Write the structure tokens for this entry.
Amino acid sequence: MSLVPKFLRPAPPRPAERDGAAPTPAQRAKANAAEGGAGLVGYLDERTGASPFLRGFLFRKVPKGTNWFYTLGSATMFAFVSQAVTGVFLAMYYNPDPTRAYTSAAHITNDVFLGELVRGMHRWGATVMIVLIFLHMGRTFVFGAYKYPRELNWVIGVVLIVLTLMMGLTGYLLPFDQRSFWATVVGVNINASGPIMGPYLADFMRGGAEFGESTLSRFYAMHMMLIPGLIGALIGAHLYLVSKLGTSAPPWLKAEKKSLKREEI
Amino acid sequence: MADLPDKHTRKSRYTAERGTPGAFEGETVTRRGLMTGGALAAGGIASAAFGLPALGFALGPMFERAAPETWQDVGGEADFNDETYVPVVMNLVPSIGEAGKTTVYVRRFNVGRDAERNSDLPYVAISTRCAHLGCPVRYIQASQRFVCPCHGGVYDFEGKVDGGPPVRPLDRFYTRVRGGRVEVGDRFSVNSELERFPHPRDPSNHIDGLWQYLYPGRPST
């Protein structure tokens, strides 16, 4: 049995294509293949029903004119996955304690095998993700892809951008050097400048009136668990809506359609 | 079709009149409805049982009073004068470690130049947190002014705003002398008349004029 998953194999023959004669061995083999392998992949496929889902999700019809700009969303998601993976491994060495945070970050860079690379990927990947998410947003805006019926997906996307920026704010403190410390002090003070709620928001972020010990662990917990969890869940919703509603055609295809219509008449 | 309840009885609050099979006399809630509501309520209570304490745990610091007062020795009386500021380095929160070290400018109270209302503090200790967004200001002796590098906030010798975006004078610290040593205590904010507010406000929070009502004092400060 082939290990090729079911959804990558040719579709099974339609009953009408078969004639009344007994199937040839080749035809039988083809029919078996179409029904799923007996191996592990086939078993999992049969139990989970992954094939129909993946066939619809990965091989859905896309409009004519789909181009490389449509890959910016996937690129952003890939950047997020890379941040998640490198972040999990950085957390194995990092220590969110005010007196040890800086030395543990320096330890990652200077001593740990490939530490400089992994930390660098996380640090530069953060910037890449911000750039990509805004390019993706720009593509959606310029192509008019935010319009009915995809407006809810735009809203989810905006929340994702805000959460990504919050990742940037919370992650910036973690190296705990002078730059990250004072930049975060200013960042929290900017939140405090909002009327009425601002000071309370700043108190929540700092874990009190002063920028203290609990601020670092708070930012660490938000950066590690709270915001990535929300981002992951919202990416799921975002993708679900993309697959449910489909992607929109680029705006310049309109004219082509009209000419088509005229031909039909 | 005839035994189907008409519009009126379908809306009746009694299950018996709505035609629910096996309904009791005077019963208003279906058993299915009761089970659904009960299950939802149980789930809600169970979620609240861990959710509310967790939320309070995270939000609690917003409503707690600031840390108890601390006094930090910053030098002998001979180290300071009343004409210029001497920078001292200290931690506002002792546990914050190396990264949180901050500069405080200290000078002796100057009878001629300082406002009478602050004469109970023997030393003037000025916080370097700009009242705009909290960047570190620097004292320049030649112009006798504090200057913020971020957005060009300027303060005079007393820490009052001279120009730029800051909304109030620089914060100060309580000071005292113990056995010939100058000690710096808690931070407090002052308004444009150098009137003391008991606790520090965040930078950018107005404490003058109508704007102060948009930035009310909060439990933690």
